[in-house]
Amino acid sequence: MPAHTGLSGFGSLFRPALLVVAVSVLILFAAPVLGLRAPIPLDYNEGWNAYASMRALGLGGGPLYLAPGGLVANNYPPLSFFITGCLGWWFGDMIVAGRVAALVSLLASAGLAGAIARRCGARGPAIAATVLLLLLYVGAFSRDYVAMDDPQWLGIAIMLTAVLVFVSGSPHPDDAGGLTPTRIVMTAALMVTAGMVKHNVLTWPAAVTLELAIAVIPRSGSRKWGGKELRNLGIWLASGVGFAALAVGLCVALFGPVFLTDMLHHPRIIDFSRILGGARRTSEILVMALVALTLVGSGKRIPHGRLLVLAAGCSIVWTLIQRAGEGVAMNAWFEPLIILSILTGVALSVAACRRTGDSVRRLARITSPLGAGGLLFIALLPCLLSARVVLPRALYQAVHIRAEARQWRAFVDKVRQQPGDVGCSMASICYWAGKHNVIDVFNYTEYVATGGDRGAFSQLLARHELSGFVLPDDFTKGDFDRRDQEHIRQKELLKSVIDHSRLGPISPDGKLRLYLFDR
């Protein structure tokens, strides 16, 4: 039987603490929500996704997947572009549509994490803690990904829907009978769909595969291989491979073989020294790992505990691999964050137990000096330490969001007023200015840095069709961080632009400048 959690074991301060967390989340999310329609660039990906969504609907810019070596590239699956494109056609702005989709997906992901935690033994306030901890950590440490036009959260939301379908099949990890073939096939279909939105959400498919494979192994004292377990594994592998093959085949039929070329052979700098830097930047989530470790010794009694442990391990390994590639940001750590939030919710419930089974009682004695309230304090510690910086900053940005938006509109208008095309290292500026997507600066720089010919860029400049280029202002100063090799390579590629242009207006944040060509 799963552990039963007495709600009174959470203590008198647990719920007020959750209320404080909820208020903090509202503060952290205020500016992104108020700025959904503001022409304030959050990340390079926003404009990149907006142009791709336009191409997906045939609104200009060529096909969705283009031949390698060109100035524009696409290494993402297609589904998010069609979803955002349809929403953008309705909203009148692809970036606004992507931001709304991302915000809804983030909130849905948090709710789904809470629902999964409930299926894994969390009860009452611990479920709310799962939801709020996830939102708090994203708002405090990955704020740019709150309502940012990027398919990451949409892919995660669909993936977590698949996980919820899977864990709802049986209340106990050793009960294979509750996991029906229909539920397994639904899980596989949803996970493949998530992969067609964002191709880096691989943690849960790997964890489910390992979970079903381990379930096949005979238990100690038994010589027979489980029939239902073997059936489940076979259905899972067949349906997963089948749906994946169908999805890829459909994409090849729609977009041609170039789809496979763009997805599988996309040029990117791989530097394994980036792994250490990525691990340092995400050290704040390790405190939730410490809270989750209080569950050691009771995993067999926690519903789907083995699946959560497998997912945690797979997520960390896969995240470290991703961090070796340039252009991979904090979104690579979202899956470990989600899993640790779920495990933390379960750990809080176990710590608050009053009526437990034998193995859970032993763990309760270990955690009793802290209790659920103490564990929650540990989970919140990084956010508490950073609160005096991140909360005032979030309040300031929310109060001044309208004034900031007006300043950015003025800068975008100056780009719009330039005759002909303008290149943009921050693609959203050119999108809002109504300019064509003449170059994908990040991906083209990666292409050149991995041995590609820069002839296409030279031809663009030789045609003298550009009236300007929006680039980082520090390209003319040389005082940027010399450790940022990505930034240095982009400056080297665009040196001819800087040498043959004059300085134009600077952006409100002082980071971008419009460089003007004399025509």
How does the SSE layout of this entry go?
Layout: H1 14-34, H2 44-56, H3 79-91, H4 94-119, H5 125-141, H6 152-167, H7 181-195, H8 203-216, H9 227-255, H10 258-264, H11 274-281, H12 286-292, H13 305-323, H14 334-351, H15 358-367, H16 371-399, H17 401-416, E1 421-424, H18 427-432, H19 441-449, H20 455-462, E2 466-472, H21 485-493, H22 495-499, E3 502-506, E4 512-516
Parallel strand pairs: 1-2
Antiparallel strand pairs: 2-4, 3-4
Helix pairs in contact: 1-5, 1-16, 2-3, 3-4, 4-5, 4-6, 4-14, 5-14, 5-16, 6-7, 7-9, 8-9, 8-13, 11-13, 12-14, 12-16, 13-14, 14-16, 19-21
Can you put this structure into words, describing what you see?
The chain is globular and about 75 Å long. α2 crosses α3 (79-91), α4 runs parallel beside α6 and α12 packs antiparallel against α16 (371-399). It has a 4-stranded mixed β-sheet. The model is unreliable at 1-6, 173-177 and 354-364 (pLDDT under 50). With 519 residues, it is mainly alpha-helical. Helices cover 61% and strands 4% of the residues. The chain has helices spanning 14-34, 44-56, 79-91, 94-119, 125-141, 152-167, 181-195, 203-216, 227-255, 258-264, 274-281, 286-292, 305-323, 334-351, 358-367, 371-399, 401-416, 427-432, 441-449, 455-462, 485-493, 495-499; strands at residues 421-424, 466-472, 502-506, 512-516.
The SSE string, one letter per element, is HHHHHHHHHHHHHHHHHEHHHEHHEE
| pLDDT < 50 runs, ≥5 residues | 1-6, 173-177, 354-364
Ends apart, CA distance between termini = 77 Å
Rg calc: 25 Å
Q: Which descriptor suits the 3D outline?
A: globular
- Helix fraction by DSSP (H/I, runs of at least 4): 55-70%
Structural class: mainly alpha
Task: Please count the beta strands (DSSP E, at least 2 residues each).
Answer: 4
Counted by DSSP, the helix tally is 22
Query: Largest beta sheet: what is the strand line-up?
Result: 1-2-4-3
Mean pLDDT: 87
Largest sheet: 4 strands, mixed
Strand content: under 5%
